[in-house]
């Protein structure tokens, strides 16, 4: 059933069309944006008008009020900024009757174009005074309003809104939102963007994260590339892929779980420094920090190792946080808006802990050196049972170790922390450690107990790589459907020679969560 407001507004549009009026004009010329208007005229004095200057602006009306039939006030929003529209019949090109009739039909949510002059009201509010105002796109629905239960609540809400202007790195106040219903915010993200001013800032912050990362690598001589999103083999990460079908070729294809193997093939081909920013797709469930599709920032650097990358990512993240927030320290509601925010310090150098050594120290264990043995598997299973660490079947050594890392190490990583030197059995694409047998030159960067980056000195021996893939096959046969599969084309590529190389992958969306104080990864980009 069509809501009565929608039905009535559709009828009004029909009447306009019948009278020869197009309610959806094709174009409106603007002379400046609302942001530019604010920058140029905010220095005007209280009550000052510049009537000899004509400005044309456009935006969406989100608030309307009137003191008489000859004076209407609107809040005009556009591109993250807001100004007041002070529509006075004395300044209008319309006569009083036309003015009253037209403005009485302007609705909250309408997109309008305005030609007028700048000035400040007697209360000192920067405004545009229209000579003409035209509805460019009517809004056919009633927009939600800020819900309050009493006059005191309303006053308190307005006070919070005035005093709280959110910027990256500080905490957000969800009570300032006009639209609060979570279901509506997720299902109709355009309303979330339209009504909650902070959400647009979140999107802009995420865009700045990507721009900063891109500029950072460009300045180091990297080139940006694009690799296939549909592949014949799902490789480059431990994850279950989405499967699709190519009708023309009548073959099964996988949505990529990582661009890693393609990027390393480019390094083999002679592109020594490459990176890609793009979507990956993984069947790994959905929660506050996991989605089936997310944006990966991944780069590969020839003639470097994981030590070099630790320095690079420290410089990248600390510089980004400093530039975007003015400090190396940020506040984040890691446990929800109902709890106190935590402080996260991105001041370099970041803390480093050795994976095996730290587990042994914290749990008072002596883990067997040969992690591929049945003895090691039994030992780790008993350790999980002893410390009540839950690990669903299959109980492979890799999965057991990963659960112990989560229990003993990840919980200590509030500030950025490198967990380094993972066992070979956990790292099929990483190069063996040059001085610690059984381990690899790999690190994961954790912030606020969550993995942000994964990186390693790349394994470039094709024989060892085939052997690692074979070991992964054993885990798959035990039921671990996230274990990697053999990619023969990649192994063949390695036979032509991959130079000593290091690579890193970072989740853009989790980083955006931290810098925008978003407890849910859905709120950091357009995800329904």
Keywords:
OB fold (Dihydrolipoamide Acetyltransferase, E2P); alpha+beta; single chain; BirA Bifunctional Protein, domain 2; 8-stranded mixed beta sheet; 5-stranded mixed beta barrel; 15 helices; 528 residues
Mean pLDDT across the residues is 92
CATH level-4 homologous superfamily of the domain at 213-227 and 257-328 and 336-350 and 415-510: Bira Bifunctional Protein, Domain 2
> How many helices in DSSP terms?
15
CATH architecture of the domain at 213-227 and 257-328 and 336-350 and 415-510: 2-Layer Sandwich
GO molecular function: ATP binding; lysine-tRNA ligase activity; tRNA binding
Domain Aminoacyl-transfer RNA synthetases class-II family profile: 203-528
Subcellular location: Cytoplasm
Pfam families: tRNA-synt_2, tRNA_anti-codon
Explain what the structure shows:
The protein has 528 residues and is of the alpha+beta class. The protein contains 15 helices and 18 strands. Helix 13 packs antiparallel against helix 14. Among the domains are: 134 residues, Beta Barrel (OB fold (Dihydrolipoamide Acetyltransferase, E2P)); 198 residues, Bira Bifunctional Protein, Domain 2 (BirA Bifunctional Protein, domain 2). Helix content is 33%, strand content 23%. The longest helix is centred in the middle third of the chain and has 22 residues.
Topology readout:
Blueprint: H1 4-18, H2 34-41, E1 55-68, E2 71-78, E3 81-88, H3 96-104, E4 111-120, E5 126-137, H4 151-163, H5 182-187, H6 189-195, H7 197-218, E6 223-224, E7 230-231, E8 243-246, E9 251-255, H8 260-268, E10 273-281, E11 293-302, H9 306-325, E12 329-332, E13 342-345, E14 351-354, H10 355-363, H11 374-386, H12 397-408, E15 417-420, E16 442-447, E17 450-457, H13 462-477, H14 488-494, E18 501-507, H15 508-515
Helix pairs in contact: 6-7, 7-15, 11-12, 13-14
């Amino acid at each position: 059933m069509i809501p009565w407001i929608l039905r009535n507004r559709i009828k009004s549009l029909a009447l306009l069309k019948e009278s020869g009026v197009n309610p959806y004009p094709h174009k409106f010329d603007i002379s400046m944006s609302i942001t530019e208007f604010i920058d140029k005229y905010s220095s005007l004095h209280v009550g000052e008008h510049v009537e000899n200057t004509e400005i044309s602006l456009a935006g969406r009306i989100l608030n309307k009020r009137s003191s008489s039939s000859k004076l209407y006030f609107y809040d005009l929003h556009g591109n993250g900024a807001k100004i007041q529209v002070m529509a006075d019949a004395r300044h209008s090109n319309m006569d009083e009757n036309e003015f009253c009739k037209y403005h009485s039909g302007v609705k909250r949510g309408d997109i309008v174009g305005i030609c007028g002059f700048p000035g400040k009201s007697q209360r000192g509010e920067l405004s545009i005074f229209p000579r003409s105002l035209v509805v460019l796109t009517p809004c056919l629905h009633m927009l939600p309003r800020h819900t309050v239960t009493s006059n005191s609540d309303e006053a308190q809400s307005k006070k919070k809104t005035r005093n709280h202007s959110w910027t990256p790195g500080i905490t957000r106040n969800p009570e300032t939102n006009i639209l609060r219903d979570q279901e509506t915010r997720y299902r109709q993200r355009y309303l979330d963007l339209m009504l909650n001013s902070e959400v647009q800032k979140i999107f802009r912050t995420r865009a700045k994260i990507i721009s900063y990362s891109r500029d950072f690598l460009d300045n180091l001589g990297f080139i940006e590339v694009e690799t296939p999103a549909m592949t014949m083999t799902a490789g480059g990460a431990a994850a279950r892929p989405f499967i699709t079908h190519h009708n023309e070729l009548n073959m099964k294809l996988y949505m990529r779980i990582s661009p890693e193997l393609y990027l390393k093939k480019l390094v083999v081909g002679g592109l020594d420094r490459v990176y890609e920013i793009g979507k990956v797709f993984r069947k790994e469930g959905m929660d506050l920090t996991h989605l089936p599709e997310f944006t990966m920032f991944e780069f590969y650097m020839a003639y470097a190792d994981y030590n070099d990358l630790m320095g690079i990512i420290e410089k990248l993240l600390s510089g980004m946080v400093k530039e975007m927030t003015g400090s190396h320290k940020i506040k984040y509601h890691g446990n929800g808006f109902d709890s106190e925010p935590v402080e996260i310090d991105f001041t370099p150098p970041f803390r480093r802990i050795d994976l095996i050594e730290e587990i042994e120290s914290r749990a008072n264990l002596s883990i067997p050196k040969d992690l591929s043995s049945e003895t090691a598997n039994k030992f780790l299973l008993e350790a999980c049972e002893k410390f009540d660490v839950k690990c669903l079947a299959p109980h492979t050594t890799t999965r057991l170790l990963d659960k112990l890392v989560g229990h003993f190490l990840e919980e200590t990583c509030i500030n950025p922390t490198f967990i380094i030197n993972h066992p070979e059995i956990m790292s099929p694409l990483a190069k063996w450690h040059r001085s610690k047998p059984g381990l690899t030159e790999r690190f994961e960067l954790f912030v606020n107990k969550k993995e942000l980056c994964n990186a390693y000195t790349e394994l470039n021996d094709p024989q060892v790589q085939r052997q690692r893939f074979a070991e992964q096959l054993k885990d798959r046969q035990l039921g671990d459907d996230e274990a990697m599969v053999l990619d023969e084309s990649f192994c063949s590529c390695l036979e032509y020679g991959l130079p000593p190389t290091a690579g890193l992958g970072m989740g853009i969306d989790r980083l955006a969560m931290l810098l925008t104080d978003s407890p849910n990864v859905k709120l950091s980009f357009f995800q329904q």
